[in-house]
Specification:
This protein has about 270 residues and is an alpha/beta fold. About 40% of the residues lie in helices and about 20% in strands. It contains 12 helices and 8 strands. Strands 1, 2, 3, 4, 5, 6, 7 and 8 form an 8-stranded mixed beta sheet that branches.
């Protein structure tokens, strides 16, 4: 599948998800992929965080982690969320950086941007801004952002090298890359991997851990660290995989513990 085809499929599925949230039907992506299944998205945000936000922002969270809980955000900083969806991580970040800081959200899906702006108005958050654009061409100047966060969106990008190069470009010297993403640890047979990725996300192209490290280093990042936050169990995917005609018991030894939600940290070197 080419980069443009991936982009259009992701855009369509997440647009549908935004419309479902807006209509009060929850955020599942549909199309046979159970985004929002408990094994992926349950219990990522605590009660105090959820209480700060409109319910629609929580329902539209289709991520696999909580980068705002793990990233070190300080008052006055500028934060950029890549693939901001319904805005939950942008709004939480905006509160943490305070009135002297700013939180940007970048998304290519018009329906998600409309939902995020509606959630921002409902939450009364003034120091946030949602931008329309693609991860491969971030509409911000060089050296303008202190922290980049993202919640399981980089795996959806067709050109991950370009995404990481753009992230490096907009970060200030010494700026931090602090994202949640789906990461694969070790080799997984291609056909099984494809089905597990469909289970994890609406469409996924998760990097193997060593690939992610290599791509970050090639983009110029240092201090690279990948920390598992949630290991996905094959048993959790049994129903989905069985419906795809896969013998779960037979593949379990090949894939158990290899798919995970992870927190990925890196830094742009200081000038």
């Amino acid at each position: 599948m080419g980069t443009e085809q991936i982009r259009e499929e992701v855009k369509a599925k997440y647009g549908q998800a935004a419309l479902r949230v807006a209509a009060g039907d929850g955020g599942c992506c549909g199309g046979g992929a159970p985004c929002g299944s408990d094994a992926i998205t349950a219990n990522l945000y605590d009660g105090a965080q959820r209480a700060q936000l409109p319910e629609a922002a929580v329902q539209a969270s289709l991520g696999c982690g909580n980068p705002t809980a793990l990233a070190e955000l300080h008052p006055g900083e500028v934060v950029l969320d890549l693939g901001s969806g319904g805005g939950i991580d942008v709004l939480l970040s905006a509160r943490r950086v305070g009135p002297g800081g700013k939180a940007y959200g970048l998304d290519m899906t018009g329906e998600m941007l409309a939902l995020a702006r509606q959630n921002q108005a409902s939450a009364g958050v003034a120091n946030a801004e949602f931008l329309e654009g693609e991860l491969e061409a971030i509409p911000l100047p060089d050296n303008s952002v202190d922290v980049i966060i993202s919640n399981c969106v980089i795996n959806l990008a067709g050109d991950k090298d370009r995404v990481l190069a753009e992230a490096f470009r907009v970060l200030k010297p010494g700026g931090r890359f602090a994202v949640s993403d789906v990461v694969v640890r070790g080799e997984v047979p291609a056909e099984i991997r494809r089905n597990l990725e469909l289970w994890v996300g609406c469409i996924a192209g998760a990097l193997e851990e060593s690939q992610f490290r290599a791509k970050l280093a090639r983009a110029g990042f240092t201090a690279i660290a990948i920390e598992p936050t949630r290991i996905y169990r094959v048993e959790d995917a049994r129903e989905f995989l069985a419906a795809e005609g896969i013998n779960v018991d037979a593949i379990a030894p090949l894939v158990e513990g290899k798919f995970m939600g992870a927190f990925v940290r890196a830094r742009k070197p200081s000038a």
